[in-house]
Specification:
By secondary structure, this protein is mostly helical. The chain contains 20 helices and 4 strands. Helix 14 (299-320) packs antiparallel against helix 18.
């Protein structure tokens, strides 16, 4: 019943709660979105703080319900986490299950589609690209001239444990598209964390959305379906599109700015989300095409690189300040239609105001969160030309300098500083060596000590001082200057070259 007092996420509210009960179907959908987000940005780890941040980051609390939500969450989190784990494991059982196949003979494509549609009415709603596999348009043969496409399609069917078809069709081209993109994880994940025998459906989905973004200026299922009205040559046009994307990525990766971003192995889809990543890539492709598709050193080539930095800067700012909000599909489509207006620098004062607020832990009246500030941190390291350690078994993620536990039940300090930009840094993990939950003066591993001085900007002599949470305001003062310099002088220099 305590959920009744909260403004439940848009699309989930029932008007009435079925005699004080939240609709289980809609609640399940909310939990699955939470699980998917955790997989994307937090290595699947759903902690009490992460669940609170996810809700606070995505939806607004009604009136002053934040503290009530936090208290209830703290009291019930063990049971909530158990329920989430059960739902997650149940979903995996269904997603990993094998299903029966109905084999049709002497049926026309239209007959097959009608039969499929009738059978599926009582089942789970399928994604657009899954439904498209039953439509005649997407099963038209494509005479491919790229031998690599044939190899990718064969591998896909092998992993699906389905006999390879004699011909390659349009659906196959879209489903394997992302594997033809050479971006070195600048835009898209490499999906290496999947088992060899698995097909990452996100990769398949993004292939369809990428094609519709380029040829229909939108990524929703509507735009994907609209491709059926587009007179595309699914061999030549898609091959040219892939070549263009790879050339644009090559141009971007020839700049120190995007080289540094790429070195952190945090693709834009994971850093900012699929819709923003597709907006970025589509607009820069349009900009490159508008400038005559330059490929050698020239004024136009430098202008494309400069525009890409300006657009990335804008997208990070809009994501972190929550101005890139609403329906991702419609927002992205509208931005692409007005793409030239998107390549305008964010006002320097606006960035300064945000950095000052983020370092205090509050901006525009709302507390900052780790999820919102993660892109800002990565951008900070780009602006300061900082690259990660290139070592095996070393990964980086956002960590708190003063541990979160130090803020619990401490009324002597401002709790908003816990998840402020002042108290966050990208720190490495290697062979079970991690700072997480440790005070600075509890760290003895010299490798980790050196990492903290390098990536958090705190000298070893100050480790004792900043192990005391009462010195958080001094930490804020010191690191706020560091961020202010990066997002003023360094930013101005980066965006002007």
């Amino acid at each position: 019943p305590w959920l009744e007092d909260l403004k439940f996420p848009r699309g989930y509210q029932m008007g009435t709660h079925n005699n004080e009960k939240v609709d289980p179907v809609l609640l399940r959908r909310f939990i699955l979105e939470l699980i998917n987000d955790a997989e994307r940005v937090n290595d699947g780890d759903i902690t009490e703080d992460y669940l609170f941040d996810f809700y606070n980051n995505t939806y607004a609390f009604k009136d002053s319900m934040e503290n009530k939500f936090k208290a209830e969450l703290n009291k019930r989190f063990k049971d909530i986490k158990n329920s989430i784990d059960i739902i997650n494991e149940t979903e995996k059982i269904f997603s990993d299950a094998r299903i029966g196949i109905i084999w049709l003979t002497n049926a026309s494509p239209l007959d097959a589609q009608n039969i499929f549609s009738r059978i599926n009415k009582g089942g789970t709603q399928l994604k657009a690209e899954e439904l498209l596999s039953a439509k005649p348009y997407w099963n038209v043969e494509v005479k491919v001239t790229d031998s690599n496409v044939e190899k990718l399609v064969s591998e896909m069917y092998s992993k699906l444990d389905v006999s390879k078809q004699e011909t390659i069709v349009r659906w196959d081209i879209a489903a394997t598209l992302l594997q033809r993109i050479s971006d070195q994880m600048l835009i898209f994940d490499d999906y290496s964390h999947f088992k060899k025998e698995e097909i990452p459906m996100d990769r398949v989905t993004l292939g369809f959305k990428l094609i519709s973004s380029f040829f229909e200026q939108g990524m929703s299922s509507k735009y994907v379906i609209d491709l059926e009205k587009n007179n595309l040559d699914w061999n030549i046009d898609i091959m040219n599109m892939v070549n263009d994307i790879n050339k644009v990525c090559e141009i971007l990766l020839s700049t120190p700015f995007f080289q540094t971003l790429q070195s952190w192995k945090k693709p834009m889809t994971k850093l900012l989300g699929n819709a923003i990543a597709l907006e970025f890539l589509t607009i820069i492709w349009l900009d490159w095409k508008d400038k005559g598709k330059p490929t050698v050193a020239s004024g136009n080539l430098k202008a494309v690189q400069r525009d890409a930095k300006i657009l990335f800067d804008r997208l990070v700012y809009e994501y972190s300040t929550k101005t890139w909000r609403g329906s991702g599909d419609s927002k992205m489509a509208n931005d692409i239609k007005n793409w030239k207006s998107r390549i305008q620098p964010v006002d320097s004062q606006a960035w300064k105001n945000f950095i000052n607020g983020a370092c205090s832990g509050v901006y525009n009246g709302q507390n900052t969160t780790v999820n919102l500030l993660r892109p800002v941190l990565y951008y900070y390291y780009v602006l300061t030309d900082s690259t990660p350690y290139n070592q095996v078994n070393t990964s980086f993620d956002v960590d708190h300098i003063i541990p979160q536990e130090a803020f619990k039940d401490n009324i002597m300090i401002d709790s908003k500083l816990k998840d402020s930009l002042s108290n966050l840094a990208l720190l490495p993990k290697k062979d079970n060596i991690s700072k997480k939950s440790k005070k600075l003066n509890e760290i003895t591993d010299q490798w980790l000590i050196n990492s903290i001085t390098t990536f958090a900007g705190i000298q070893k002599i100050d480790f004792e001082k900043y192990s005391n949470v009462m010195n958080i305001t001094d930490l804020k003062t010191e690191r706020e200057k560091m961020f202010e310099n990066a997002f003023s002088l360094n930013r101005d220099k980066a965006l002007s070259n």
